[in-house]
Amino acid sequence: MGVVETVVYQQALPDRYRKLDEKELTKAIWEAKKRLGNSLIILGHHYQRDDVIQFADYRGDSLKLARIAAELKQTKYIVFCGVHFMAETADILTTPEQVVILPDLNAGCSMADMAEVDEVEECWDMITREFGSSIIPVTYVNSSAAIKAFVGKYGGLTMTSSNADKIFSYALQEKERILFLPDQHLGRNTAFKLGIPLKEMTVYDPKEMSLEYPHGHGSSRIILWKGHCSVHQKFEPSHVCYMRETYPGIRVIVHPECMFETVQLADENGSTDYIIKQIDNAPAGTKWAIGTEHNLVNRLAQEHPDQMITSLNPMICPCLTMNRIDQPHLLWSLESLINHQPVNVIRVDDETAKWAKTAVDRMLELS
Q1: Is 48 within 8 Å of 295 (Cβ atoms)?
Q2: Is pLDDT above 50 for 7?
Q3: What span, in angstroms and rounded, lies between the C-alpha atoms of 356 and 272?
Q4: Total Cβ atoms within 10 A of residue 183
Q5: 288 pairs with which residues across the strands?
Q6: Predicted confidence (pLDDT) per residue in 267-292, tens digit
Q7: Kind of pairing, strands 135-140 and 287-291?
Q8: Is 211 exposed, middle or buried (0-12, 13-18, 19+ CB in 10 A)?
Q9: Cα–Cα dist 325/239, whole Å
Q10: pLDDT for residue 324
Q11: Most buried residue, 129, 155, 275, 359, by CB count within 10 Å?
Q12: What's the burial of 284, exposed, middle or buried (CB within 10 Å: 0-12/13-18/19+)?
């Protein structure tokens, strides 16, 4: 297919921003926001650090922020406090006149990086030789614009953890098989929830360029890309057992990016938005162990002091790439807009954007 994305290089953060303390940075960011006025909207993903998320005009998970970006037709500047693929999606869904900024271009996603478009093309050639035209490609929004474009061109669509059940159900009505990438855990957990046996799930290893059958040979209704979230994979079944032994009566809720065995042991599983709503609606005195990114878990604990809330695995680190968005980079981004010299602009080339938007629009129409 030969999809190529525009390459944008990270500029070095000017030293003066590193020398400001948190109080100075906070004051300057609020002032910059005020000066930019209605020309600016800041979008913040729930996993952002507290000292950054406070400036977001809208907070949300990937699906909510994609919907908001698609509606911001009159906003000149959109600063996305998230990671690279999220800002790409915002650029795909906005007009050419709008400018999307990612404060630090190094804020990537290790999961998204596990699927390169040339690898996906190799996989597609292999599985279509074996299974013919019986496959529809579906990609998690945690993927590059190039991957979204590939999926869009071959009749597929994107998916988030919020609408996973609905998108998988639709895809299986359209075709006999799904190629799902790049997170094997979300794909496996979603398919199993819809009643598909594990033996009918096959894993494609892009490094070996081969199919694996970890659950035994079956019909390969679901072909899972061998990728994962480096944070969510660290929540293991042993952590669930430990929490139940240590805190009798505790409820365990996890993100479906966690491994299958962990999800099966948990009391509940669902998207970031689902987890937030469950905690918001829980009665005082409830005890929770949450298997998702630490910034969100800590924020929920602060917002609900009447509940006992802890991480399912307190030893893991927050998402390192998400945490690259910090106050110095945010202030730099805003002041650059004031000076009419935007930095770290995210711009997806027209051909890639056209097909990626096709994939995203198909999802939004169903969600």
Answers
A1: yes
A2: no
A3: 23
A4: 30
A5: 251, 309
A6: 999 999 999 999 999 999 999 999 99
A7: unpaired
A8: middle
A9: 29
A10: 87
A11: 359
A12: exposed
Distance CA 28, CA 316 (A): 32
Q: Which of 294, 290, 266, 264 is nearest to 277 (CA)?
A: 290
Q: Over the stretch 75-103, which tens digit does the pLDDT of each residue have?
A: 999 999 999 999 999 999 999 999 999 99
What 3-state class would DSSP assign to 100? Answer: strand
Is 201 strand, coil or helix? Answer: strand
CA 51 – CA 68 distance, rounded (Å) = 22
Ordered by where they begin, the domains of the chain are 15-108+322-348 (3.40.50.10800), 112-225 (3.40.50.10800), 232-311 (3.40.50.10800)
Phi/psi region, residue 64 (left: phi>0; alpha: psi -120 to 50; beta: rest), is alpha
Predicted TM-score (pTM) of the model is 0.91
Taking the C-alpha atoms of 328, 38, 322 and 5 in order, what is their torsion angle to the nearest 10 degrees? -110
Q: Which amino acid is at 20?
A: L
Considering only the C-alpha atoms of the chain, give the largest distance between any 2 of them, rounded to a whole number of Å. Answer: 61
The order of strands in the sheet holding 251-254 is 268-269, 251-254, 287-291, 308-311
Q: 38 is written with which tokens?
A: 């209605």
In this prediction, residue 2 carries a pLDDT of 38
Asked whether the predicted pLDDT for residue 320 surpasses 80, the reply is no
What is the spatial distance between Cα 260 and Cα 256, in angstroms, rounded to a whole number? 8
> Using one digit for the tens of pLDDT, what is the confidence trace for 237-278?
999 999 999 999 999 999 999 999 999 999 999 999 999 999
H-helix or E-strand spanning residue 77: strand 77-81
